[in-house]
Amino acid sequence: MNSFVKRLGSALTASAMMLTAGIFVPVQAADTGADAAPLFTAEAEDCTLLTGASVTTNVYGTEYPGYSGDGFVWAGNAGGMTFEVDVPENAMYELTTRCWMYLGDPGTTRMQTLAIDGDVKSSIYIANNEKWEDSSFGFFYLEKGKHTIEVGATGSWGFILYDTVTFDFADMPELNIAPDPCDKNATAETKALMKYMTGQYGNHIISGQQEIYGGGNNGDTELEFRYIYETTGKYPVIRGFDFMNYNPLYGWEDGTTGRVINWVANCGGIATASWHINVPQDFDSYTLGDQLDWQKCTYKPTSSFNTANCLDPTTKEYKYLMLAIEDLAEQLLILQDANVPIIFRPFHEAEGNNNTNGSGAWFWWGSSGAEVYKELWKLLYTTLTEEYGIHNCIWEVNLYDYANSAQWYPGNDYVDMVAYDKYEGSPYTWKTSAATSVFLTLVNDTNDTKMVALAENDVIPDITNMVNEGAWWSYFCPWYGDFITNGTTNTKEMLDKIYNSDYVVTLNEVPNDLYGYARGNGGNWNVEGAYECEDGNIQTNKGTTTVAYDYCSGGKYVYLQGEGDYIEQTVTVEKAGKYAIRYGYQQNFEKNGKTQNLYVNGTAVGEAFFPYSILFGESDAIVVELKAGKNTIKVESGEGWTYFDYLTVSYVGDDILTGDINLDGKLSVSDVVLLQKYLIKSGKLTADQAKRADLNGDGVLNAYDLALLKHTMLGK
Hints:
The protein is of the alpha+beta class. It contains 13 helices and 38 strands. Strand 17, helix 3 and strand 18 form a beta-alpha-beta unit. The radius of gyration is 31 Å and the shape is elongated.
């Protein structure tokens, strides 16, 4: 590692951190100097050899010149070596070997493992570069005392030559990252987010959680977040999203963009998003612009879609990619217009199974290899920033810690963060390990110039391990569902420990004005005189559910879904007459709006229209007749898929203020907007609203009424 600082920081800092119960941060020993001898170094042949290893000067008659000492250790199908170290203090250490990978074409890799005191600690992929070279076997936190190191432990693929081994203090990175986004035209909010995250990096780890998408959990996107809050009393800061359903094929409005805005603008959190962009499975027969059933689409490699062609403007692949980017850009521009920045992680996990030619790719965007992938990344970056003027992204790229992984890195000019997706399979062999070797490898791959994060993970590392080992992941973000809620992958005890650690940032600890505007901008927590929808009589047969959510009135809302489900509330008024009712709601599913059925005292009184709304807000007023005393008001699912927060009721009587379309007792720009939307057929008016909008009384609503309304509002 270049220009790294020894150990874990100053004695003063470490001593201060030690005050936190349960966490030991090793105090830095006196600097031994750059030229100091390592703690342990030896010829491989002088170590204790494991069964299957032998000392030699050639393999099958072929000499390998350049080794030191009397020869080298040859490990074929099996074999390795062990040695003992006596470490002077609790600290981070690194093992390196001078070795030569034997089998495979140049650049291909084979996995070797290392065990400490009998436990396998790392699996390292070493490339065949046809020469002797130093390879790190990882970084390890060891307590003071004697330890047995085993190189070539169980699980190694073997077929490797070892010349020397070196064990020494690890060079730990400074983690002092410049706060400037790679996009020089980044928005003020994006710069503010970058500054905040780089300020936390190396000192705290930001909590995160991926939400389910595509209508999973019966549409309950809050399930994982509610579970975390009920378990820990805290909410995560970072919420993971996915833009996959905004696409040219089966694309539909699943409310993702609205939820991003709500999480950032209302809740004051941080948003990150991947992009599982799909392509047709049979691209050869696909006609650009056609709609396809989602079952005929894929984000996996498909033989008919040549990823390399995405770089050629004359190809169908390129033209399809531009259509997909256009759909993506529309959503990112909505976020930008709402002053919402986002950590954007497109084309994730490109490398797949350890390769550079794309043969092991899991997704189509990696199937043509590393060089094409890097150009694809740059194409996306330049198209969004230069053609569409999108500057609200912190650009995050996925890498792994294979020997060839750094070859997939697009370059510092196009990247703000590096992400690692940690999945261990079953059983969870890493358990609560900090995955420190991975972290430090990725830090080193960018010369400690970019933040490194756990963008996806199964088990959240134990915060004690992360702090003690200096694995300061920028944030963690478990995948949704059982990964967080089954109580096994992440136990409730460990989850509570992590979320209540002084080293982990939770939502309540984020500055209220992180983005330059107050948390809750657009939100409405306490509505005077409101009837909370969650307190009503709720019919739930078709999926309707009550969702706990701190950032709406009363701390809950009702998610009205299937046909026939309803919310019925009892309201009390002093006298009979006309009343304006309004619902607090959010409807971020259908841009043309949703229509629901309305009943008063058991009688149908018409339809209630709920325009597209990416934030919780208030509906237009609906005038109904109420009797003195108790009345029931029921909203029944017609088109469903709407969040209902509260109901308000206000007396309007028989007096009509001409032009007061929203029934708030005054003339305002809001009335103008309602009439404009009606005239361009992007909104609806009730009969009462239409009567108030007919300013010249001719029974027809047109541009003349709009002009009269504007003049009346201005007092002309």
